[in-house]
Amino acid sequence: MNLQCPCCHARFSLETALQDDAARELLWLLADLEPRLARAIAGYLGLFRSKGRALNWDRAGRLAHEVLALTPDREALALALAETTEAIWNKREKEPPRPMSNHNYLKRVLESLTARRPQAPSEPPRIEPVKPAEPEHPDSREPLPERAAHLLARVSKAPPR
After folding, report:
1. Which residues contact 48 (CB under 8 A, 6 or more apart)?
2. Minimal CB count within 10 Å: which of 43, 68, 119, 127?
């Protein structure tokens, strides 16, 4: 079965993706997240792809782990990812697209979002990094084709650009 990523438009075979360790780890990571956050990360990862090339699975996995380590507040992270992705796509309509190389823009959006959200007066805002989860042994999870189908169903509902 051949698939096309809704974010970066790379075409790949599901069987090939499931045989690649990095691709399988990324699919498991996204499948374990809330659908809104998984779609936001998938869309954000597409910003790192150059015009003529697909994003490497290893790099995509590393980027996803880095993003999740930015804050434990998943709701704020999903909002910041969506705002970042929309802003970058709007910018790319006006000037030649360049792939992103770091998370600095996302960090600024996340800080702005955190500052705009009301905090309890007795509790200062806290942003603690989250350690990336170590991948579990594949035998301890659901069968991979079912998880992949579940992930693809969730990610394919990504918001249009």
Report:
1. 55, 59, 60, 63, 99, 100, 101
2. 119
